[in-house]
Design a protein that fits this description.
The complex is a heterodimer of chains A (about 180) and B (about 200). In chain A, a hairpin with a 2-residue loop joins β4 (about 55-70) and β5. Chain A has about 180 residues and is of the alpha+beta class. The two termini of chain A are about 25 Å apart. Chain A contains eight helices and eight strands; from the N terminus they run αααββββββαββαααα. In chain A, strands 1, 2, 4, 5, 6 and 8 form a six-stranded antiparallel beta sheet that branches. In chain B, α3 (about 125-135) packs across α4 (about 140-170). In chain B, β4 and β5 form a beta hairpin. Chain B is globular and about 65 Å long. The chains are: A alpha+beta (about 180), B alpha+beta (about 200).
Chain lengths: ~180, ~200
C-alpha cells in the first residue's frame, strides 16, 4: 500500500483508539501519518532503546518479545487493527518490547513531531485521541494489577512454583500491560 | 471577590478567599496556561476549607471530583482487609492533584483520601470537566495531558517493577505497592471477601 487508507476503513479498524475522535477530523490524523513497509525479519522497535512513535498495523503480522538476563521471551503477535508505541509517542523513552515483522507488514506511523504538530493545529482531535489512549492504558494497568494482586495473596502457590513458572506468569502480566492478546 | 472575608456562619469557609488564579500559576501542571484558560479553570472550581478527617474519596465507593490541595495534607490509605486497620500509601500536600482517575473511568476508588488536619482545596466536579470537554475548551485538553502524563508515569513504573521481578524471579509486593493498589481495586476487594469466607469456614470446623 503506497497511498493512505480509506478514512472510514481506518476509523473502523482502529476504533478502540480513534473512536473518540470526531469522524470529520480523522483525515487530519491520517495526513500526519506516514506509511512504511517492513520485510519479514525487519525490526521496528528494539526493547529498551529510545522510541517516540506510534505504529498502527495495517497489514501483515508482527511479533513482540523482551530480553531479560540474556534470555529472549516471546510475548505474542500483533495483528492488523492493533498498534504499538503509544506510550513512547506520548512520553518518549525506552521501548517496552522488541517488535519484529513476521511477514511483510505495512504500518502507519505517527511520530512525536507529527503529534505535536496536530496538538498545535487540531487540539480538539488530540484531546479526544489522548482520552481514548488514557482509557486503554488504564484498562491494561487494571488487568495487570489485578493479576499481580491476586497472585500475591496465594503464597502457597508462590512457594510451590519454580522461578521459571513465576517468570512465565510475569510474562503473562507483561502481555496484559502492553496489550498483547494473541499469543504466538 | 478575591480578598473578601466570608461570613463566619458559612460552614465551608473559615477565612479569606484566596485568589485561586494566583495559586494555579504556581502549580507546575498548569504552567503555560493562558490567562483565559486560567479563568475558565478557576470558574469551574470551588475553594473550600475541609476539617481534619474529612473524607474526600472513600475506598470502594464511586468518586467524581478532582481536588487540588492548596494548603494542608491529605493521607492516602487502603484497608488491610480482614485483619483490620489501614496501610498508608502516600501523603499529598499543596499543589498536588488527586482523583484524576475519575476523569478516565467510573470504577470505584481503590483508596481513601482523608484530610490529616485542616485542608484547603479547590474542587473540580466531573460534571464541570465534562462541560469543558464537550465544549472543546482548551483547558480540557490540558487536563487530559495532566492525566495522560500521570498514566505514562504509572505505566513506566509498573513496567519497571515487573521487569525487576522477572530479573529476580519473584512476585512484586502487591500489598503495599501504591500503584498496584491504585489500579486493582475490584480484584482486591474480591480477594479480601474470599479470605474472609475462608476464615469463617475454618472457624466453623
Amino acid at each position: 500500500m503506497n497511498d493512505k487508507p480509506n478514512i472510514d476503513e481506518f476509523y473502523d479498524r482502529f476504533a478502540d483508539v480513534v473512536g473518540h475522535v470526531n469522524p470529520n477530523q480523522v483525515h487530519a490524523l491520517l495526513d500526519c501519518m506516514t506509511t512504511h513497509t517492513y520485510s519479514a525479519g525487519e525490526v521496528l522497535l528494539h526493547d529498551g532503546e529510545h522510541s517516540d512513535s506510534l505504529y498502527f498495523l495495517w497489514d501483515g503480522l508482527l511479533d513482540a518479545s523482551i530480553t531479560e538476563n540474556g534470555e529472549t521471551m516471546d510475548l505474542g503477535n500483533i495483528t492488523p487493527g492493533q498498534w504499538v508505541g503509544e506510550v513512547s509517542m506520548l512520553d518518549p523513552g525506552p521501548a517496552t518490547a522488541t517488535v519484529t515483522a513476521i511477514k511483510e507488514s505495512t504500518v502507519l506511523k505517527l511520530s512525536r513531531d507529527a503529534y505535536l504538530h496536530l496538538e498545535a493545529t487540531a487540539p480538539q482531535l488530540t484531546t479526544r485521541l489522548l482520552h481514548g489512549m488514557s482509557n486503554l492504558l488504564t484498562e491494561r494497568m487494571r488487568a495487570a494489577s489485578n493479576l499481580l494482586y491476586s497472585r500475591h495473596h496465594q503464597p502457597d502457590m508462590n512457594q510451590a512454583n519454580s522461578a521459571k513458572h513465576i517468570k512465565r506468569w510475569l510474562v503473562n502480566v507483561y502481555q496484559k500491560m502492553i496489550g498483547i492478546t494473541q499469543v504466538s | 471577590m478575591a480578598g473578601e472575608r466570608v461570613p463566619e456562619n458559612d460552614r465551608h469557609y473559615t477565612g479569606v478567599i484566596m485568589d485561586l488564579t494566583d495559586f494555579l500559576q504556581t502549580v507546575p501542571e498548569f504552567a503555560g496556561l493562558t490567562p483565559s484558560e486560567l479563568d475558565a479553570l478557576e470558574m469551574s472550581m470551588s475553594v473550600s476549607d475541609y476539617p481534619d478527617e474529612y473524607v474526600f474519596t472513600k475506598e470502594g465507593k464511586g468518586a467524581h471530583d478532582i481536588y487540588l490541595i492548596i494548603d494542608g495534607t491529605v493521607r492516602v490509605t487502603h484497608k488491610k482487609g480482614i485483619e483490620g486497620g489501614v496501610y498508608e500509601l502516600n501523603r499529598l500536600g499543596p499543589g498536588e492533584l488527586f482523583g484524576l482517575l475519575a476523569l478516565i473511568d467510573h470504577h470505584e476508588r481503590s483508596a481513601t483520601c482523608r484530610a490529616a488536619g485542616p485542608v484547603r482545596a479547590a474542587k473540580l466536579p466531573r460534571s464541570a470537566f465534562d462541560l469543558l470537554y464537550q465544549s472543546n475548551a482548551p483547558i480540557a485538553y490540558h487536563f487530559q495531558k495532566i492525566v495522560a502524563h500521570q498514566m505514562m508515569k504509572d505505566f513506566r513504573s509498573l513496567i519497571k517493577a515487573i521487569r525487576k521481578s522477572m530479573h529476580e524471579g519473584n512476585v512484586p509486593d502487591a500489598v503495599t505497592d501504591e500503584l498496584i493498589i491504585k489500579y486493582s481495586g475490584p480484584e482486591r476487594r474480591k480477594t479480601e471477601r474470599r479470605k474472609g469466607e475462608r476464615r469463617k469456614a475454618e472457624r466453623r470446623q
